[in-house]
Specification:
This protein has 240 residues and is an alpha/beta fold. The protein contains ten helices and ten strands. Bound molecules: adenosine-5'-triphosphate.
């Protein structure tokens, strides 16, 4: 028997009015692994993440965190259950300091000592944020802002971290640094990461497994190595 996945999505369907964005999507993210969700613009990747976090209503299917069913639960219940999302776009509050932005991530109201401990963990992962903790977020580069929004999500100490296009617009060495931190979270802390990326080549270089979406359907799901070695799949859907 296969082990229960940390996160499982079964036959999920979601629409925006007449537009079907997810058409029976089934994926699983194994515990302590990085699972990539790949596909072109409009494939349904963002909708999938937002459905899992309770931000987009679904019409059928299931979302399971371990054995716990979270289908159609509120976004707050889902966050409390242990799923945190890093949305696309690096929304930081530029008038607040780095540390104030990080504290905003503590949606669940952790005790002060524990919050301090988590802040120190984030600073250990991203030393540049520690250096700039008292500076306004306005002064940060794109890569630093991406680190900040990831750090903010970590303040909830999630079991499952969902990331939407963290590499977008960043230089390759910054992407490598951020992906290295994801790898560390998975390997050292046993976190489970679901990584949405259009940059399939980079994503498959750090992911353990992946699913490819096209027009709201899963067209492939396998280990990262198998997906990266499939020439037809790469040419048809992955753009490299
Ligand atoms: P991208 O990388 O461009 O964000 P994606 O793979 O994340 O692409 P989604 O954003 O999930 O894809 O979009 C899936 C489909 O749903 C597309 O056809 C898109 O046009 C449509 N869609 C997404 N958001 C909305 C919305 N708010 N209203 C109407 N249609 C939408």
């Amino acid at each position: 028997m296969t082990e229960t996945a940390a996160l499982e999505v079964r036959d999920l369907t979601a629409s925006y009015g007449p537009v079907t964005a997810l058409d029976g999507v089934t994926i699983r993210a194994e515990r302590g692994r990085i699972t990539a969700v790949l596909g072109a613009n409009g494939a349904g990747k963002t909708t999938l993440l937002r459905s899992v976090s309770g931000l987009v209503p679904t019409s059928s299917g299931q979302v399971l965190l371990g054995d716990r069913e979270l289908t159609r639960a509120s976004a707050e219940t889902i966050a409390r259950a242990g799923i945190a999302q890093v949305p696309e776009g690096r929304g930081v509050i530029t008038e607040l300091t780095v540390e104030e932005n990080l504290r905003l991530g503590d949606l669940l109201g952790t005790a002060r000592r524990r919050q301090r401990h988590r802040l120190e963990q984030v600073y250990a992962l991203f030393p540049v944020l520690a250096e700039r903790r008292r500076r306004d977020a306005h002064s940060l580069s794109g890569g630093e802002r991406q680190m900040l929004v990831i750090g903010r999500a970590l303040l909830c100490a999630p079991e499952v971290l969902l990331l939407d296009e963290p590499s977008l617009g960043l230089a390759p060495q910054i992407v490598a640094q951020i992906f290295g931190v994801l790898r560390e979270l998975v390997d050292h802390d046993g976190m489970t990461v679901l990584l949405v990326e259009q940059n399939a080549r980079s994503a498959l270089s750090i992911a353990d497994a992946g699913f490819v979406l096209n027009l709201g359907r899963v067209v492939a799901g396998d280990s990262a190595a198998v997906l990266a070695a499939d020439d037809d799949l790469r040419h048809a859907y992955l753009g490299f």
